[in-house]
Amino acid sequence: MPESLIIRPPSEWRSLLVRITRGCNWNRCRFCGIYPAMGQADFSIRSLAEIRRDIDVLVLRHPRAETAFFGDADPLAAGMEIFCDAARYLRQRMPVQRLTCYGRVATLHRLGPENIHRLAAAGLDRIHVGLESGDAEILRRQRKGQSPKMVVRVARWLREAGIELSCYVLLGLGGRDQWRRHITETARLINRIEPGFVRVRRLWLHGNVENGCPLWQEVRAGDFVEQDPEGTVRELELLLEQLRPLETFLACDHANNYVQVSGLLREERDQMLAEVRDFLALPEERRQAQYAVIGSRI
Ligand code: SF4
Q: Which among 68, 249, 251, 291 has most CB atoms closer than 10 A?
């Protein structure tokens, strides 16, 4: 049995899912703690022999797969040798059209431009990174382990290497106090780096104060006031207002978004903005009904 991933991007639902590492090697983001919560508290690197064995089985089981994805949270932390060997082996066993993975900005920053070119040469086409916010102070407070400056450098190296960048943005990460700054700085950073994709999510604190994600402690102490549903939709509105008409595909491709819009910013930004505003113009009870039916989950 190949080892299965704990989490993958929604867009990779048809991909061969190959586990290179287990869990998250960082595990410090205040809003997360998801791997420990799902039973994978420790980080470990799988051996090349194990990974190759899994690829052999996956290729036999899914002979028509056209894409592949490497996990868990930061498979690049396995090191260049293991990652590139696994990528080459996969492509040798199956001519997939696309190979993607999750990756931490901090890891890519440490690897540097030369290694990023090596990743491209080994067959990596796209990388999904947690941008979360473009605001340096919010990132520091949430212990993301990256800064906007690092993101700008990494985005440039990826573009030069020909690897697509897919960024996740977390509405609500500034809480109710810092939401305008959170969104303004996030839009500023996206406008600067022009990623291929922006994927929007809503902050959801899993578990509870006693047993849940670390940010609950700040909520309990009153240092972080959670954004309310309407505020989250206002954040999406502000984000769309401030984004330039880039060659970037924006998608609210997670079920926990209250309003689901998607499209190419260059062509569909105004239409997406109109959809969000139409929603905000609905009668109060219709909006509240929508907030009530949208589930909160990973
Ligand atoms: S958000 Fe990503 S990097 Fe941060 S702890 Fe969670 S899995 Fe790890």
A: 68
Closest by Cα among 30, 52, 42 to 6 = 42
Residue 275's pLDDT band, with cuts at 50, 70 and 90, is very high
CATH number at residue 16: 3.20.20.70
* Vertex 101 angle, CA 99 and 104, to 5°: 150
- The closest of 170, 180, 174, 187 to 248, measured between CA atoms, is 187
pLDDT digits (tens, 9 = 90+) for 90-121: 999 999 999 999 999 999 999 999 999 999 99
Q: Which of ligand 1's atoms lies nearest the C-alpha of 132?
A: 1
Residues in contact with ligand 1 by the CB-under-6-Å rule are 24, 26-29, 32, 34-35, 73, 104, 130
pTM metric for this prediction? 0.95
Distance 33 CA to ligand 1 centre (A): 7
Range of the domain at 214: 10-293
How many angstroms is it from 73 CA to the middle of ligand 1?
A: 7
Query: Ligand 1 mean position to 257 CA, how many Å?
Result: 20
